[in-house]
Amino acid sequence: MPKFKVMKTIYNKILLKLSGESLMGHQGYGIDPERLGDYARQIAQLADAGVKVAIVIGGGNIFRGLSGAAKGFDRVKGDQMGMLATVINSLALSSALESLGKLAKVLTAVGMFPIGEHYSPSRAQDMLDEGKIVIIAGGTGNPFFTTDTASALRAVELRTDVMLKGTRVDGIYTADPEKDPTATKFDKITYDEIYNRGLRIMDLTATTLCRENGMKIVVFDMDTPGNLAKVIAGEPIGTLVY
């Protein structure tokens, strides 16, 4: 595989949040091998460029705790099932990255040896410094917290330059662009404006955690091949939250 070359990289260490739902591709459930492979290739290119990459993946393609609770599951057990779904996705991504010759390690928020090593910020940082791609599974390890909150927490703990939120839309809009054709996109937006407008790019816990710790977020379309490299290179795609 050829090395990925960019003229510049404006971020040296990132936390990439991936949507579990996006891993479904066009299947409607589970993991689409084509989508998984595409994600792995984009991430591998960043590693080739020398970017330190930590990743958190959702589990909505397999099970969502909140949806399960609405259908009668105990909320705590439903969230624990959702945590396990994120571990499955993380193992799949690590396998896809390893098939490309990349060193990828899965860390879990709760003890799951030998499936993954127990997460700690210092251990994750050591792995990043060694050039490994670190995939952090299991959410925060606690019920009632989303993987968005887990992403924000890990970004802050690891002191990444930015949190990149890969979604199926190309940024933040004044309204849901899939429902409102008049919605307009923001190139940049402050946290204060997000609160004032009542926009929900993530749950409020995650948004507040990033705001209070000065963590920038870039929301972008991850499903378009090449977009991740463009964000890293500083091209004006997606929406910057600051």
Would you spell out the secondary-structure blueprint of this structure?
Layout: E1 13-18, H1 33-48, E2 52-57, H2 65-70, H3 75-99, E3 104-108, E4 117-118, H4 121-129, E5 133-137, H5 147-158, E6 162-167, E7 172-173, E8 185-186, E9 188-189, H6 191-197, H7 204-212, E10 217-221, H8 227-232, E11 239-241
Parallel strand pairs: 1-2, 1-6, 2-5, 3-4, 3-5, 6-10, 9-11
Antiparallel strand pairs: 7-8, 10-11
Helix pairs in contact: 1-3, 5-7
Q: What descriptors fit this protein?
A:
alpha/beta; Carbamate kinase; single chain; 242 residues; two-stranded antiparallel ribbon; globular; 8 helices
Structure, explained:
This protein is α/β, with parallel strands linked by helices and 242 residues long. The chain has one domain (13-241): Acetylglutamate kinase-like (Carbamate kinase, 3-Layer(aba) Sandwich), CATH 3.40.1160.10. The protein is built from 8 helices and 11 strands. It has a 9-stranded mixed sheet with strand order 4-3-5-2-1-6-10-11-9, with helices on both faces. Strand 1 (13-18), helix 1 (33-48) and strand 2 form a beta-alpha-beta unit. Helix 5 (147-158) packs parallel to helix 7. The longest helix is centred in the middle third of the chain and has 25 residues, at 75-99. The protein is globular.
Task: Characterize this entry briefly.
The protein is of the alpha/beta class and 242 residues long. It is 37% helix and 18% strand.
